[in-house]
Automatic annotation (TrEMBL):
Domain RNA polymerase sigma-70: 68-81
Matches recorded under Pfam families: Sigma70_r2, Sigma70_r3, Sigma70_r4
Species, as recorded: Nocardioides daedukensis
Any GO BP: DNA-templated transcription initiation
NCBIfam families membership: SigBFG, sigma70-ECF
Protein name stated in the entry: RNA polymerase sigma-B factor
Signal peptide (from-to): none
Keywords: DNA-binding, Sigma factor, Transcription, Transcription regulation
Molecular function, one GO term: DNA binding
Length: 265
């Protein structure tokens, strides 16, 4: 959809924010009928279900069916919709995310579960750990999921699943404490659902592959060096013969383009 002023097409995220604001306006309009406000409330929940699904995916491989986590997270979404104050100037997704995640964590706490990992994934986790150590020495860098898959002899999707299970693996109960650097105690529930930077890096590398083919040669080369060869910006600058600052600008610009492409895919 183009803007009325003839500007660039409206992004899916911008369209969703616009629709969300319009629906919240209806929900908060006391002059509207109860039926109208109820329909708008239901539409808001449907509109933001992808946020629930995103939050639920953070708890994969914790021993609970994904569909159940989505249902529990939806309860948190409904609570967020009912409590959201549009006058506070906060994005709804920013407000709703902690509520959704809190509802999912409460679900685990109420069931008193420990984090359980299937035996198949435990064995794969050990294979990945041993193979990673070997490839680190032979390659002189961290192996990519594709390289691990080839060495182990399994699909790359299974390697990524094994890496995810490594993050989930623990024999501690969800409320067992773990000492933090500042001396405070963190429970497993405190850390569940927190984005893992290493895992995001793995997922990004695999998701980028088809999109890289559409990039200009220079940008493609820089991203390959960064995400597939794990080189630092300084190393990339020396490799391609430009300044580190120029590499940083190119990476930021190209990654922004790729983020938009990933969001729309």
């Amino acid at each position: 959809m183009s803007t009325e002023t003839g500007g660039p097409p409206e992004t899916p995220l911008a369209a969703m924010k616009r629709a969300s604001a319009a629906l919240f306006a209806i929900v908060g309009d006391q002059e509207r009928s109860t039926a109208e406000r109820s329909v708008a409330r239901d539409d808001l929940v449907q509109l933001h279900l992808p946020l629930v699904e995103h939050c639920a995916r953070r708890f994969r491989n914790r021993g609970e069916p994904y569909e159940d986590l989505v249902q529990v997270g939806t309860i948190g979404l409904i609570k967020a919709v009912d409590r959201f104050d549009t006058d506070r100037g906060v994005e709804f997704s920013t407000y709703a995310t902690p509520t959704i995640i809190g509802e999912i964590k409460r679900h685990f706490r109420d069931k008193g579960w420990a984090i359980r990992v299937p035996r198949r994934l435990q064995e794969l986790r050990m294979q990945i750990s041993a193979t990673t150590a070997e490839l680190n020495q032979s390659l002189g860098r961290s192996p990519t999921p594709s390289e691990l898959a080839e060495a182990i002899g399994c699909p790359v999707e299974e390697v990524i699943e094994g890496i995810e299970s490594s993050n989930a693996y623990s024999t501690l109960s969800l409320d067992a404490g773990d000492s933090s650097e500042d001396g405070g105690a963190l429970t497993m529930l405190d850390t569940m659902g927190v984005d893992d930077a290493g895992l995001e890096h793995v997922e990004l590398r695999e998701s980028l592959k088809p999109l890289l083919e559409q990039l200009p040669a220079r940008e493609k080369n820089i991203l390959m060096l960064r995400f597939f060869k794990n080189m630092t910006q300084s190393q990339i600058a020396a490799e391609v013969g430009v300044s580190q600052m120029h590499v940083s600008r190119l990476l930021n610009k190209t990654l922004e383009h790729l983020r938009e492409a990933l969001a729309e895919s």
